[in-house]
Structures are given as structure tokens and as C-alpha cells.
Design a protein that fits this description.
Elements (H helix, E strand, L loop, with lengths): L2 H30 L15 E9 L2 E2 L4 E5 L4 E5 L5 E6 L6 E5 L16 E4 L6 E8 L9 H33 L6 H18 L4 H29 L4 H23 L24 H23 L1 H11 L1 H6 L4 H26 L7 H16 L4 H17 L9 H15 L13
Parallel strand pairs: 1-8
Antiparallel strand pairs: 1-2, 1-5, 3-4, 3-6, 6-7
């Protein structure tokens, strides 16, 4: 091959390479950089939700189509028989424009001046709601006293639910001295276990929930046998154990995300039907069931703690482990039982929390971990009954505070009151001087 021939072939090779690279980048632009609305995206990849309610003359409108767009993604939802639709979106940044399809309102009389388009923006939560009201429905106003009563009932429900998890957290601290930052993931584990047992196997939710609680207890037993007891025997200090619990919390959190994704999953069997005849209090059948279960379980646990031999031994270990061991109490056995009970209670709290704040997320437990610690410290470190009282106070404060502050900031109020109370009573409401549990 002569030099002239080589010089003639080189440009062809370069053109071929340039053509190949151009095709590669074009494919990348089409398939990799296409807008979200052009790509096939499943609901599991859309972690945020826009809830829409459509009503006409005060009545729900079914089969109404609503679209949501931010310019790069377009989602669509159709209302059910209650006039509700959920549109999943990939991001909560920016402004979302909602549009109600007029053609989907078949058989509905649409008065003049009805609004068919509106904009919404997300706050700190993963959901946002908006309403389309067609016609002049009667505007109902609620007095301050009625709102206070309704929020008080919701706060009591939330406080009882929080107490289930906080009591276990307090007992673990009392018997081992460990501030378990992974306790929130035990809450999440219970909800996820109930989800897999009900959706994955097709079992009734009333069968799935008890099994999920049992699995939560076994999970706590495995954590103690595999991690905490070996570390205690090696003589690790409280600070080192606390750091391990923080790392365990992060690890479990992202393991949960692998299994259920970043979206929100729903447990079956929830009823949003409001019980009539309760005046200003709007409470559903699910809420009443949750409160009843919480009261029964807390009552049974209080009886076990105060009336049984093992319960009294648990209180003795919580007060003074060394003295309890000198008295012949098997401290390791008591600690093992405490881990099982604490995990089982946390699992039940996770199931009830999934119904109270509809949906299961991979980080749902970490969202209330700070409130659990606030309840434990407020009630008195290491005291089961103190955790109960502290949880009810925190639950009432969180819900009632929304009368004066935005709902996105309601958790801040609980922390402010916690700080104020501890300034005057550092040992908490039921401190060591007045311990009864």
C-alpha cells in the first residue's frame, strides 16, 4: 500500500468513526435524556403523590380524568366512586398544573364559572392535595372549639400508637442503657412484614397482622442474639453501642428500600368511612379500631409488667441490673425478653401507623423516631409508664398545634415543649424519684 493510498483511506475511516459516534450520541439523547413523560415509568419509580378530589354540588364525581404536569412529566388519574384520584409523579420540585378533563364529566351539570385548572406545590411531605369543586356547594365552617375537639381525638389516637413503640424503646434503655436509634426501623419492619404477608400471600389482613407482630418479635430476638449480646459481652461502652445502632438504622433503612422501592405502598382493609353521630369529631372505623387495639395491648402489657413475676423482674433489672443479678434474677434472659417485646410492640405500631398516615414507606420509622425519643425523655428515661404518658402528651401536642402553626411544622412544637419541661424537670414527668413502672 502506497502513501497516497493510505492517505485516501484514512478520511473514510474517520468518517465511519464519526458516523458511529454520532449515532451513539443520538441514541443517548433519545433514550437516555428523553423527558420523563416519554419514558416508560412504573408507579414504583414515582415516589410522590398528588391527591385530587372532584365534587359537584357537594357530591363526589366518579370517572373524572385529571392530568398533572410540570412541563417535563405528565401524569393522569381517574377518580373513583368517592371522587378521589391519586397521580404519581417523580419529583416534588417546582409547580404542578392540574387540569380537569371536561369531556370526562358525562352526565354532570357543570355550572358557569367552575374551575378546571389549578396549580399546586409540594411542601416537606411526599403528598399534596387539591380539590375541584363544580357548582356552588354549601360552604361549611367549623368553629375553633369543634376543631380543637376533633384534633384532640386524633392526638389521643396518635399518642396511643406512639406509646406502643416508645414503651419498648424505654424498656430497652432501662435494661441495657442503650439508646437504640434503629428502633424506628423495627417500626418499619412490622409494616413491611404485614404488607408482604397480605399482598404477597393473599392472606387476610387479620391473619397477616398477628404474623407480622410475631415476625417483628423474632427480628428483635435475632438482633439481640446476633449483635447486641455479643457486643455487651465484649464490654463495649454505651457510646459505642449507640454508634452501632445508628449504623444499623441506616443499613436497615436502605435494605427496606431495596425490597419495597422508594414509593408508597398501601395495606389492604383500610376504611375511610366516617362514623356518623359524633358531632364535630370526624373519626373513621379504622381509627376507632386502632385506638381499641392500642388500649387493649397497653393494658395487657401494664398487667404483665406489674402483676407477673417476669414483669416484676423486668422492672427490677430496669432499676438496678447489678442488684437484680445479685438477687438471683437472670438478667440476660430478661434482656432477651425485653428485646422480643419491644420489637413486637414496635411492629404493631408500624402497622397502625401505616393506617393512620396512609401508606408504607421505606423510611417511615425514622420519621417518628425523634418523637419516640421525645416521649421517652419527657416521661422519664427507662420507665414504661413514663413513656406512655410522654407519648400521649406528644401526640396531643402534635395534632392540636396545627390550630396555630402549619402542619409541616407540627413536630417542632413537641420538641419545644420537651425542652421547656426538661429545663424545669430534667428527670421527666415520672423520673427516678417517682418511678411507678
Amino acid at each position: 500500500m502506497t502513501t497516497r493510498q493510505a492517505s485516501l483511506r484514512m478520511p473514510r475511516r474517520r468518517r465511519s468513526i464519526l458516523t458511529l459516534l454520532s449515532g451513539f450520541f443520538a441514541a443517548a439523547l433519545v433514550f437516555g435524556l428523553a423527558p420523563a413523560s416519554m419514558a416508560a415509568v412504573g408507579d414504583e419509580d414515582l415516589p410522590y403523590s398528588i391527591n385530587v378530589n372532584v365534587r359537584s354540588e357537594g357530591e363526589p364525581v366518579a370517572q373524572a380524568k385529571v392530568t398533572a404536569t410540570d412541563g417535563s412529566f405528565t401524569g393522569e388519574g381517574t377518580t373513583d366512586e368517592r371522587g378521589r384520584a391519586t397521580i404519581k409523579v417523580p419529583t416534588k420540585e417546582g409547580t404542578w398544573t392540574l387540569e380537569l378533563d371536561r369531556t370526562s364529566l358525562s352526565g354532570i351539570s357543570v355550572p358557569d364559572g367552575s374551575e378546571f385548572e389549578r396549580t399546586v406545590e409540594f411542601g416537606s411531605s411526599s403528598t399534596v392535595s387539591s380539590n375541584f369543586t363544580l357548582g356552588a356547594a354549601e360552604r361549611q365552617t367549623t368553629s375553633f372549639v369543634d376543631q380543637l375537639l376533633s384534633r384532640t381525638v386524633n392526638g389521643l389516637n396518635f399518642g396511643l400508637m406512639l406509646a406502643l413503640a416508645a414503651i419498648g424503646l424505654s424498656l430497652v434503655f432501662g435494661t441495657t442503657g442503650l439508646s437504640n436509634f434503629a428502633h424506628g426501623e423495627m417500626v418499619t419492619f412490622g409494616a413491611i412484614a404485614a404488607l408482604f404477608l397480605s399482598a404477597g400471600t393473599g392472606w387476610s389482613i387479620w391473619v397477616a397482622i398477628p404474623l407480622a407482630i410475631i415476625l417483628s418479635g423474632l427480628f428483635g430476638l435475632a438482633m439481640d442474639a446476633g449483635i447486641w449480646r455479643p457486643l455487651r459481652r465484649r464490654g463495649l461502652g454505651i457510646v459505642q453501642l449507640m454508634i452501632v445502632s445508628i449504623g444499623l438504622s441506616l443499613a436497615l433503612r436502605y435494605i427496606f428500600q431495596i425490597f419495597i422501592g422508594g414509593g408508597t405502598q398501601q395495606l389492604p382493609g383500610a376504611s375511610s368511612e366516617i362514623i356518623p353521630g359524633l358531632g364535630p369529631v370526624r373519626i373513621s372505623v379504622t381509627d376507632v379500631t386502632s385506638m381499641a387495639i392500642s388500649i387493649v395491648v397497653i393494658g395487657a402489657f401494664a398487667w404483665w409488667l406489674t402483676r407477673t413475676r417476669l414483669g416484676r423482674a423486668t422492672r427490677a433489672v430496669s432499676d438496678n441490673p447489678s442488684l437484680a443479678a445479685a438477687s438471683g434474677i437472670d438478667v440476660d434472659n430478661v434482656v432477651r425478653i425485653v428485646w422480643v417485646l419491644a420489637s413486637a410492640l414496635a411492629g404493631l405500631a408500624g402497622v397502625l401507623w401505616a393506617y393512620f398516615r396512609p401508606g408504607i414507606r421505606w423510611d417511615m420509622g425514622s420519621g417518628i423516631l425523634l418523637l419516640m425519643f421525645a416521649a421517652v425523655v419527657l416521661g422519664g428515661l427507662g420507665t414504661a409508664f413514663g413513656a406512655l404518658i410522654g407519648s400521649i402528651v406528644v401526640g396531643l401536642l402534635v395534632e392540636v398545634s396545627t390550630l396555630w402553626i402549619p402542619s409541616d411544622m407540627k413536630y417542632v412544637g413537641a420538641l419545644v415543649v420537651l425542652i421547656v419541661i426538661l429545663l424545669f424537670r430534667p428527670q421527666g414527668i415520672l423520673g427516678r424519684r417517682e418511678r411507678i413502672g
